[in-house]
Amino acid sequence: MLVGGGRDDEEVLRKLKSMDVDKMENGGGGGEAESPRPAVKYHGWKAMPFIIGNETFEKLGTLGTSANLLVYLTQVFHMRSVDAATLLNGLNGTTSLAPIVGAFLSDAYLGRYLALAIASIASLIGMFLLTLTAGADSLHPPECSVGETCEKATSYQFAVLFVAFAFLVLGSAGIRPCSMPFGADQFDPHTESGKRGINSFFNWYYFTFTAAMMISATVIIYVQSNVSWPIGLGIPTALMFLACVLFFMGTRLYVRVKPEGSPFTSVVQVLSAALKKRSLKQPKDPKQDLFDPPHTSAIVTQLAHTDQFRCLDKAAIVASQDELRPGGAAPADPRRLCSVQQVEEVKCLIRIVPVWSTGIIYYVAVVQQSTYVVLSALQSDRHLGGAGFQIPAASFTVFAMLAQTLWIPFYDRLLLPKLRKITGKEEGFTLLQRQGIGIALSTVAMVISAIVEDRRRAIALSQPTLGTTITGGAISAMSSLWMVPQLMILGLSEAFNLISQIEFYYKEIPEHMRSVAGALAFCNLALGNYLSGFLVTIVHRTTGSGQNWLAQDLNKGRLDLFYWTIAGIGVFNLIYFVICARWYRFKGTSN
Fold first, then answer.
1. Quick one: how far is CA 372 from the chain centroid?
2. Which sequence ranges form a coiled-coil region, renumbered to this chain (predicted)?
3. 3-state secondary structure of 290
C-alpha cells in the first residue's frame, strides 16, 4: 500500500506465498492438459540481486513518500485537517482498488514483467513530481509562522499534486499484485532447489519489506519532519530511481510468464447463462438434469451441488442438444451452458461476500491510525523522556507494527499448541473465530482511543500547554505515549483479522481463482478507506454548525465522540459478523 498501510500489504503478501507456490508447482490455473512448451531457462538466484534490490529500494521509496502525507498536506499545503484526512482516505482507497485492475491487465494482456516496468516508471514520475511540489516555491503555498493566516494552495499547485498522486496510484496498480509472483517466477518449481529457492525468496522479500517499513516510519519521516521536506521526499525519489535501474539491469535474466487470461471469465459466463435461462423452471433432480461432465482437473477440487442460490443452477440446464458439442462432453457456447462445477465455484464467491463485507466496516477503525491518530499526536507532548528528541507524529504507526511482530511468533509457538489441546482443532481458533476476535479488538481500541482523546483534550484546556502547532492548535501536556496501547491493540486486531481473513479467502475460493482472494483483500481495504472518508464528511457537515467534532484545532472539537461513534458501529459490525459466520457454509460441505 502506498499510503498509510504498509503493514496491511505485508500480511497480504505473506498469504500470497501459499497461492503462488501452489500455482507454480501445478503449472498454472487450468485443469486441462496443455501442449508441450519450450524449455524455460531459470536463472534463479542470479536474478535475485536485481529483483530483491529493486523491491528494497522501491518499498523504501514509496513508503517513505507516503507515510507522512497527512502532515505534508496540513503543514506544507495548509489544508484543513478534515480535508486532508478525507483526501488521504480517498487516496488510500483508490490505491487499494488499483491493484485489482492491474492484476486483471497483467493476467490477461501485459504479463508481469511489462506491468512492473510500466508501474515502476509511473511511481518514479509520481515521486519526482511530489518532490517538486516541496522543492519548487511555485508549486506550494508560501511558508507561514505560528499565529499567521496561512495562504491556501492555488488550483495549479493542487493540479500538480493530484497528477503526482495519479502516477503513484498507477504505480501501485502494477507493483503490488505483480512484484512477488514475478520474483517466484524466476525459480523452477519442478526441482527441489527451485522449491527451496522460492521459499527463500519469500523470506528475503518479507525481511526487506519489514525493514523498509521500519526505516520509512522512523528515519525518512524524521528527515521530512525535522530537516527538510525537499530532502525528505528527494531521498525516496532517488531510491526509487535506483530501484528502476536495478530492475531493468536484470532484464536479460528474467523468466517472463505469458498472460494466461482472467479468472473472472468463468464468473461472467455463469451469470450470463443464468440470466439468459431465467425463464426456465428449476430442475427437479439436479444430479440428472444439470450439465455435470467428468471432473478431470488435478488442481481444482471437485465441488458437489448445493441447494443455495438455486437460481444460478439454471446456467447448467441443457435446454437443447444444440448447446452441446458432438459427444456431449463440452458446451457449444460457454456463455449459454456452464457445468455444475462452474456454478458451484460462483456460489463459493457469493457465500464469501457477507463475511467479506464485515471487513469494510472493520477497516474504518484501522485506518484512523494514519489520519486522526497522527493529528492527535501533533497536539500531544511527543518528547521522549527528558531529552529534546520528539517522536515524529507519523511514526506512531510503528507501535501497531510492533504488536503484530511480537504477537505472531507468540501465537504460533506458545499459544497455538495449548489451543490445539483445548479445542481439539489443528488451527486452534477457526478462521472465522479469529476474524471475530479481530473485530472485537478493533472496537476495544476505539473505546480506548475515545478515553485517551478525552483526557488529552481535558489537559489541554485545563493545564498550561506546550506551544502551538503550525495549524494553530495548542499542544497538550499529555504524553503522546498514552496512545501506544490503542495502537498496539489495533495492531493485534490486524494480526487476528487480516491474516485469517486472507487465509479464509484462499481456502474457500476455488484453487484456480485464488487471484481473486488478493483482489478481495485490497478491495476491502479500499472500501474501508472510502467509508471512513464518507463518515468524516458526514460528521463534519452534521456537527459543523455547532461544536464541530472534527475541528481544525482538536482541542475545540470532540474527536472522542467520533471515536465513540466508530466503536458503536463496530459493535453492530460484530453482531452482523456473528450472524454471517453462523450462516456460512464452507466449501465442499453440503450442509
1. 19
2. none
3. strand
Cell of 499: 491474516
Range from 26-35, 50-59, 231-240, 381-390 carrying the lowest mean pLDDT:
26-35
Would you list the DSSP string of 344-373? HHHHHHHHHHHHHHHHHHHHHHHGGGGTHH
Q: What is the DSSP letter of 216?
A: I
| Residues shown for the chain | 591
Q: Which of 183, 172, 223, 230 shows the shortest CA–CA distance to 206?
A: 183
Contact 7, 491 (CB under 8 A): yes
Q: Which residues pair with 479 in a beta bridge?
A: 381
Euclidean distance between CA atoms 237 and 231, whole angstroms: 10
The pLDDT score that the predictor gives to residue 568 is 95
Distance CA 102, CA 85 (A): 26
What is the band of 203 on the pLDDT scale with cuts at 50, 70, 90? Answer: low
For 395-438, the pLDDT digits (tens) are 888 888 788 777 877 877 788 888 888 887 777 788 899 899 99
pLDDT value of residue 131: 92
pLDDT surpasses 60 at 12: no
Each residue's pLDDT tens digit, 144-179: 876 677 888 899 999 999 999 999 999 888 887 777
Question: What are the backbone dihedrals phi and psi of residue 383, each rounded to the nearest 5 degrees, phi first?
Answer: -70, 140
Number of H helices, E strands in the chain: 19, 0
Give the C-alpha distances (Å, rounded to integers) separating 171 from 176, 242, 460, 492, 515: 8, 15, 42, 30, 19
Grouping H, G, I as helix, E, B as strand and the rest as coil, residue 465 is: coil
Task: Say whether 384 sits in a helix, a strand or coil.
Answer: coil
Tell me the three state secondary structure of residue 496: helix
Which residue reads 516555491 in cell numbers? 137
Q: State phi, psi for 479 to the nearest 5 degrees.
A: -65, 135
- Which residue, among 144, 146, 166, 171, has the nearest Cα to 76 in the 3D structure? 144
Helix (H, G, I), strand (E, B) or coil at 317: strand
Q: Residue 505: what pLDDT? A: 79
> Could you give the 3-state DSSP secondary structure of residue 474?
strand
Q: How far apart are CA 287 and CA 370, in angstroms?
A: 53
Neighbours of 389 (CB within 10 A): 11
**pLDDT confidence band for 33 (50 / 70 / 90):** very low
The type of residue at 228 is: S
Q: Which residues contact 8 (CB under 8 A, 6 or more apart)?
A: 1, 366, 494, 498, 525
Q: What are the chain's domains?
A: 44-250 (1.20.1250.20), 263-347 (no CATH), 350-583 (1.20.1250.20)
Burial (CB < 10 A; 0-12, 13-18, 19+), residue 299, is middle
Per-residue pLDDT, averaged over 492-509, amounts to 80
Which residues, other chains included, contact 393 with Cβ-Cβ below 8 Å and sequence gap of 6+? 71, 225, 374, 375, 377, 378, 382, 480
